[in-house]
Amino acid sequence: MAAVNDVVVNSAVGVDGNSYTTAISNDKLTNDDFLKLLLEQMKQQDPTKPQDTTAIMDSQLKMSTIQSNSDMSTAMAALQASYANSALSTSANLIGKIVEDGSVDKAGLVKSYEVQTVENVDGELYLNALQLTGYADRLYDTTTKAYAKYDSNGYILDSTGAKTAIQIQMKDGRFVPSSTGGITLLDANGKIITDAATVAKYVTDGASVTYASSPTKILVSSIKEIW
Question: Are β-strands 19-25 and 170-171 bridged in parallel, bridged antiparallel, or unpaired?
Fold first, then answer.
């Protein structure tokens, strides 16, 4: 807080030889400083011609009101910042969760998203989330003991990413099961492969979720479902 010593005071000498204040300049002048100046002015005034202090007290009251409003604004800003930090911390618990905001895709299905990050943008909390686009069956190579890759048409890819002559029969992006509950493999001519060794080489052990390549920004306040 500023002290009276920091105040810039302009004064002049009256015809009676007494000095008086003509201006006071200090943006950080406090109520305590104002009262000290008021008391000093009352001590220095001519006792035979006392000044009317009503206007001075009115100014002090206005200053007190302004100071109170300023303090309240500061407190509200601190409270808002605290709330924002608390809300951001709470929203961070959504990372890794699946959420829905009620929006639907072209097929009329409700969109689901996996939350990646949370951010505060101009006081609004947003989630950066990847939309779940479907499921992809996993293909396991029992000879290499590793998962194998395949293209959108079901052709199995080798270690270099090149397409092989073996194709997985697919429908709507998913593996078509064989009569024995495995997967249906096709040769270069589109015929079902019955060779036991080849059939045993490739198996599936379930599916994994597929996501959009870029995140979607979602208002936290718009979230309707979380799981």
Answer: unpaired
| pLDDT mean over 180-185 | 89
- Give the integer Cα–Cα distance in Å for 13 and 44: 12
Contacts of 117 (CB under 8 A, 6+ apart): 95, 127, 128
For the chain, the domain total comes to 3
Same domain membership, residue 192 and residue 143:
yes
Q: Which two tokens stand for residue 218?
A: 């979602």
DSSP state at residue 224 = -
Q: DSSP string spanning 74-136?
A: HHHHHHHHHHHHHHHHHHGGGTT-EEE-S-B-TTSPBP-EEEEEEEEETTEEEEEEEEEEEEE
Question: CA 164, CA 151: separation in Å to the nearest integer?
Answer: 10
Residue 111 placed within a domain: yes
From the list 157, 155, 187, the residue with the least C-alpha distance to 170 is: 155
- For 11-35, write each residue's pLDDT tens digit: 666 656 666 555 555 555 666 776 7
Token digits of residue 83: 């709330």
- What is the tally of helices (H) and strands (E) in the chain? 3, 14
For the segment 63-75, what is each residue's pLDDT rounded down to a tens digit? 667 666 776 777 6
> Which pTM value belongs to this model?
0.54
